[in-house]
Design goal:
This protein is mostly beta strands. The chain has a domain at 3-146: Jelly Rolls (Sandwich). It contains three helices and 14 strands. Strands 1-2-9-4-7 form a five-stranded antiparallel β-sheet, with helices on one face. A four-stranded antiparallel β-sheet has the order 3-8-5-6, with no helix packed on it. A three-stranded antiparallel β-sheet has the order 10-11-12, with no helix packed on it. β5 and β6 form a beta hairpin. The longest helix is centred in the first third of the chain and has 11 residues, at 3-13. It is globular. The protein starts with a helix and ends with a strand.
Length: 211
Protein backbone atom coordinates (compact mmCIF):
# COMPACT_ATOMS: atom_id res chain seq x y z
CA UNK A 1 0.00 0.00 0.00
CA UNK A 2 1.34 3.46 -0.93
CA UNK A 3 0.36 5.93 1.79
CA UNK A 4 1.09 9.03 -0.29
CA UNK A 5 -0.95 7.97 -3.33
CA UNK A 6 -3.75 6.74 -1.07
CA UNK A 7 -3.84 10.13 0.66
CA UNK A 8 -3.86 12.01 -2.64
CA UNK A 9 -6.57 9.73 -4.01
CA UNK A 10 -8.75 10.38 -0.97
CA UNK A 11 -8.20 14.11 -1.41
CA UNK A 12 -9.24 14.03 -5.06
CA UNK A 13 -12.33 11.94 -4.27
CA UNK A 14 -13.57 14.77 -2.08
CA UNK A 15 -13.32 17.26 -4.95
CA UNK A 16 -16.06 17.42 -7.55
CA UNK A 17 -15.54 20.34 -9.95
CA UNK A 18 -13.63 22.13 -7.20
CA UNK A 19 -13.66 25.89 -6.84
CA UNK A 20 -10.32 27.63 -6.30
CA UNK A 21 -11.02 27.96 -2.56
CA UNK A 22 -11.93 24.25 -2.29
CA UNK A 23 -8.71 23.23 -4.02
CA UNK A 24 -6.63 25.54 -1.83
CA UNK A 25 -8.22 24.10 1.32
CA UNK A 26 -7.65 20.52 0.17
CA UNK A 27 -3.98 21.15 -0.63
CA UNK A 28 -3.43 22.89 2.71
CA UNK A 29 -4.77 19.82 4.50
CA UNK A 30 -3.05 17.01 2.60
CA UNK A 31 0.57 17.81 3.54
CA UNK A 32 3.31 16.12 1.48
CA UNK A 33 6.99 15.76 2.38
CA UNK A 34 10.00 15.56 0.09
CA UNK A 35 10.78 12.09 1.50
CA UNK A 36 7.38 10.86 0.29
CA UNK A 37 7.93 12.40 -3.14
CA UNK A 38 11.51 11.22 -3.64
CA UNK A 39 10.59 7.90 -5.36
CA UNK A 40 8.59 9.86 -7.95
CA UNK A 41 11.12 12.56 -8.83
CA UNK A 42 12.33 12.52 -12.44
CA UNK A 43 15.72 13.92 -13.41
CA UNK A 44 15.48 17.21 -15.34
CA UNK A 45 18.09 16.29 -17.95
CA UNK A 46 18.26 19.17 -20.44
CA UNK A 47 14.98 20.66 -19.23
CA UNK A 48 14.25 23.10 -16.38
CA UNK A 49 12.56 20.34 -14.40
CA UNK A 50 11.69 16.67 -14.45
CA UNK A 51 7.95 16.04 -14.23
CA UNK A 52 6.03 13.02 -12.97
CA UNK A 53 2.24 12.86 -12.96
CA UNK A 54 1.13 11.20 -9.72
CA UNK A 55 -2.61 11.19 -10.23
CA UNK A 56 -5.18 12.38 -12.75
CA UNK A 57 -8.98 12.30 -12.85
CA UNK A 58 -11.52 14.26 -14.86
CA UNK A 59 -11.46 16.88 -12.09
CA UNK A 60 -7.86 17.23 -10.86
CA UNK A 61 -4.30 16.29 -11.79
CA UNK A 62 -1.27 16.22 -9.48
CA UNK A 63 2.29 16.55 -10.83
CA UNK A 64 5.62 16.40 -8.99
CA UNK A 65 8.44 18.56 -10.38
CA UNK A 66 12.15 18.19 -9.64
CA UNK A 67 13.95 21.41 -10.60
CA UNK A 68 17.36 21.71 -12.23
CA UNK A 69 19.67 24.10 -10.43
CA UNK A 70 19.97 27.66 -11.69
CA UNK A 71 17.50 27.17 -14.51
CA UNK A 72 14.16 28.85 -15.33
CA UNK A 73 11.22 27.49 -17.32
CA UNK A 74 9.57 29.47 -20.12
CA UNK A 75 6.68 31.85 -19.48
CA UNK A 76 3.42 29.91 -19.85
CA UNK A 77 -0.23 29.73 -18.91
CA UNK A 78 -2.20 26.65 -17.79
CA UNK A 79 -4.78 26.50 -20.56
CA UNK A 80 -8.23 26.72 -18.94
CA UNK A 81 -7.04 25.41 -15.57
CA UNK A 82 -6.24 27.01 -12.23
CA UNK A 83 -3.90 25.47 -9.70
CA UNK A 84 -2.12 25.42 -6.37
CA UNK A 85 1.66 25.00 -6.26
CA UNK A 86 3.38 23.69 -3.11
CA UNK A 87 7.08 24.38 -2.59
CA UNK A 88 8.03 21.12 -0.89
CA UNK A 89 11.79 21.69 -0.88
CA UNK A 90 14.12 24.58 -1.67
CA UNK A 91 13.48 28.04 -3.09
CA UNK A 92 11.60 28.96 -6.27
CA UNK A 93 12.00 32.14 -8.31
CA UNK A 94 8.67 33.30 -9.70
CA UNK A 95 8.07 35.85 -12.47
CA UNK A 96 4.57 37.06 -13.32
CA UNK A 97 3.39 38.68 -16.56
CA UNK A 98 0.61 40.91 -17.78
CA UNK A 99 -1.11 40.32 -21.12
CA UNK A 100 -1.90 43.33 -23.26
CA UNK A 101 -4.84 43.57 -25.67
CA UNK A 102 -2.79 41.63 -28.23
CA UNK A 103 -2.16 38.85 -25.67
CA UNK A 104 1.56 39.60 -25.55
CA UNK A 105 3.18 39.08 -22.11
CA UNK A 106 5.33 41.60 -20.25
CA UNK A 107 6.88 40.84 -16.88
CA UNK A 108 5.54 43.00 -14.06
CA UNK A 109 6.64 41.20 -10.88
CA UNK A 110 9.45 38.94 -9.68
CA UNK A 111 9.30 37.30 -6.29
CA UNK A 112 10.65 34.33 -4.31
CA UNK A 113 8.52 31.42 -3.09
CA UNK A 114 9.90 29.78 0.05
CA UNK A 115 9.92 26.15 1.12
CA UNK A 116 6.74 25.15 2.92
CA UNK A 117 4.50 27.68 1.17
CA UNK A 118 1.60 27.19 -1.24
CA UNK A 119 0.60 29.73 -3.86
CA UNK A 120 -2.35 30.03 -6.19
CA UNK A 121 -2.13 30.11 -10.00
CA UNK A 122 -5.29 31.70 -11.30
CA UNK A 123 -6.91 30.72 -14.57
CA UNK A 124 -5.25 32.75 -17.33
CA UNK A 125 -2.16 33.65 -15.32
CA UNK A 126 1.11 33.74 -17.28
CA UNK A 127 4.18 33.04 -15.17
CA UNK A 128 7.62 31.47 -15.12
CA UNK A 129 9.33 29.52 -12.34
CA UNK A 130 12.84 28.31 -11.66
CA UNK A 131 15.40 27.14 -9.13
CA UNK A 132 17.81 30.07 -8.70
CA UNK A 133 20.15 28.21 -6.34
CA UNK A 134 22.57 25.27 -6.51
CA UNK A 135 20.57 23.30 -3.93
CA UNK A 136 17.60 20.99 -4.70
CA UNK A 137 14.08 22.33 -5.29
CA UNK A 138 10.91 20.24 -5.50
CA UNK A 139 7.35 21.42 -6.12
CA UNK A 140 3.99 19.66 -6.17
CA UNK A 141 1.31 20.99 -8.53
CA UNK A 142 -2.46 20.54 -8.26
CA UNK A 143 -4.52 21.64 -11.30
CA UNK A 144 -8.27 21.71 -11.87
CA UNK A 145 -9.25 20.58 -14.36
CA UNK A 146 -6.18 18.75 -15.75
CA UNK A 147 -4.14 21.06 -17.99
CA UNK A 148 -4.69 20.85 -21.70
CA UNK A 149 -3.55 23.18 -24.50
CA UNK A 150 -1.02 25.03 -22.36
CA UNK A 151 0.56 28.02 -24.12
CA UNK A 152 4.34 28.46 -23.87
CA UNK A 153 6.02 31.75 -24.84
CA UNK A 154 9.38 32.38 -26.52
CA UNK A 155 9.72 36.10 -25.92
CA UNK A 156 13.15 36.36 -27.51
CA UNK A 157 11.74 35.23 -30.86
CA UNK A 158 8.31 36.79 -30.34
CA UNK A 159 6.45 33.46 -30.58
CA UNK A 160 3.92 31.44 -28.61
CA UNK A 161 3.12 27.75 -28.92
CA UNK A 162 0.10 25.73 -27.83
CA UNK A 163 1.69 22.48 -26.68
CA UNK A 164 0.55 18.90 -26.29
CA UNK A 165 -0.36 17.64 -22.84
CA UNK A 166 2.91 15.71 -22.42
CA UNK A 167 5.08 18.82 -22.90
CA UNK A 168 6.38 20.89 -19.99
CA UNK A 169 6.88 24.65 -19.77
CA UNK A 170 9.54 24.92 -22.45
CA UNK A 171 9.60 25.27 -26.23
CA UNK A 172 8.72 21.81 -27.62
CA UNK A 173 11.62 19.82 -29.00
CA UNK A 174 9.33 17.47 -30.93
CA UNK A 175 7.20 18.67 -33.82
CA UNK A 176 4.22 16.59 -32.67
CA UNK A 177 4.11 18.60 -29.43
CA UNK A 178 3.57 21.87 -31.35
CA UNK A 179 -0.20 22.04 -31.72
CA UNK A 180 -0.16 25.66 -32.91
CA UNK A 181 2.59 28.27 -33.26
CA UNK A 182 1.57 31.92 -32.98
CA UNK A 183 3.44 35.11 -33.87
CA UNK A 184 3.39 37.78 -31.17
CA UNK A 185 3.07 41.46 -32.04
CA UNK A 186 5.52 43.04 -29.61
CA UNK A 187 9.20 42.30 -29.12
CA UNK A 188 10.66 41.64 -25.67
CA UNK A 189 11.64 44.90 -24.00
CA UNK A 190 8.79 47.00 -25.46
CA UNK A 191 6.54 48.62 -22.90
CA UNK A 192 3.18 46.89 -22.43
CA UNK A 193 0.09 48.86 -23.28
CA UNK A 194 -1.78 49.65 -20.09
CA UNK A 195 -5.26 50.27 -21.45
CA UNK A 196 -7.18 47.02 -21.25
CA UNK A 197 -4.23 45.01 -19.98
CA UNK A 198 -5.28 41.80 -18.27
CA UNK A 199 -3.66 41.28 -14.90
CA UNK A 200 -4.20 38.09 -12.94
CA UNK A 201 -3.95 38.58 -9.20
CA UNK A 202 -1.59 35.82 -7.99
CA UNK A 203 -2.60 36.25 -4.36
CA UNK A 204 -6.24 35.21 -4.47
CA UNK A 205 -8.52 32.75 -6.27
CA UNK A 206 -10.16 34.13 -9.36
CA UNK A 207 -10.12 34.74 -13.07
CA UNK A 208 -8.37 37.52 -15.02
CA UNK A 209 -9.73 40.97 -14.25
CA UNK A 210 -9.43 44.27 -16.10
CA UNK A 211 -7.30 46.92 -14.45
Amino acid sequence: MNELLDRLTDMVKSLERPTPSELITAVDRVGVTVAELRPYLSEPGLYPYGRQKLLATDEVEIIAMNWATQRQCSPHDHGSSFGVISVVQGTISHDLYTLDQDDTPAKYLSRVEKEGTNYFAARGMVHSMGNPLTTPAVTLHFYAPPITRMKVYDLENCLACVVSDDCGAWWPTEQRQRLAVLKLTRKTGDQPRTTGSRVVDPGRPGDPVLR
